[in-house]
Amino acid sequence: MKVTVLSENLQKKISYLNHAISSRTDLPILLNILIEAQNGILRISSTDLEIGIQTQLAAEIEEEGATTIPAKTFSELINSLPNERITLTTTDNSVTIESKKTKSSFQTIPASDYPKLYEEKGETIAKINFTDLKRDASMVVFSASTDTARPALSGILVKKEGNGFLLVGTDGYRLSLKHHVVTGSETTAKDEETIIIPARVLREVLSVRDDATDVLIHVATGSNQVMFEMGDTLLVGRLIEAEFPNYERIIPSDHNSRIFFDREELLKAVKICSIFAREAANIIKFSLKNDKMIVSSQTPSLGENTVEVEAKLTGEENEIAFNARYLLDVLSGIPQSELSLEMTGPLNPGVFKLKDDASFLHLIMPIRIQQ
Fold it and tell me: 81 lies in which domain range?
């Protein structure tokens, strides 16, 4: 293999591939990235067997071929080179990288030893605006559990509905639900059809830096894989085979109190109160009043603080307490400025919604506090 590329173009691709590099030293091949040169394209892949990432860039190919190279060291080298043409040449069990003034060589492992990211892409179930998907997925993915002991809770439920998809994430203490509309885009999924996508896969979709306008979503039922194709980048993950919790039964059907507020103002108040809450189980209390919401936290050994937030209440005055981290996650993860909180009492879930927009809700289980 002999390939010439611009180091600047390679640098942009390499950084994202590192997200799928394994730390398992018992499988040395997973510490490498796969490099394939064919038909004027340099294709680079990485996988840790949970997710796989494949990207490509244009290159001058004098000799086609494939090899694998240590990912971390190769990435550090490429990022250290000036913006100029570099040539990669393989000989037997090594690869040489040459620029105008530098020459480096790496030991390689044959490309034939590298695990395949996928056998086939499968059925294309949707073509969705990339920006819209990233916006809506970011409003749900933070609610999924990072603990894979309960697989369903570490995934995002994706359910086809009339004009789009329903996205649901929960870790058992909170829940996010978002209706994603795909007007003007294409979808072949059947109504009520559901899949559970690992939250980690969607987090990686959110971190993609590609100029793609649309994302193609493929599902390969034979290998139970889902793939997100975004311009030159393909992200591969394995669907979760588990029963998703019956989320509908925990969503309150009514409320006694609803209070409207500015998201940014409440976020600042929660950040202030979280300083004191750290020493007291991370508890922050909301007191709902007619024209304000009082946000407070206290620690017996430290002290207490309160912050008033302008708000408009309909219904009864009320009180409720939440975990500060959950509040910070939802208030930071929503782009809209005007929100509401609905509740029926201090021991029932609090439900955050968008003003004049029924496409989203976020539920947090309350914390019982001593009066």
Answer: 2-113
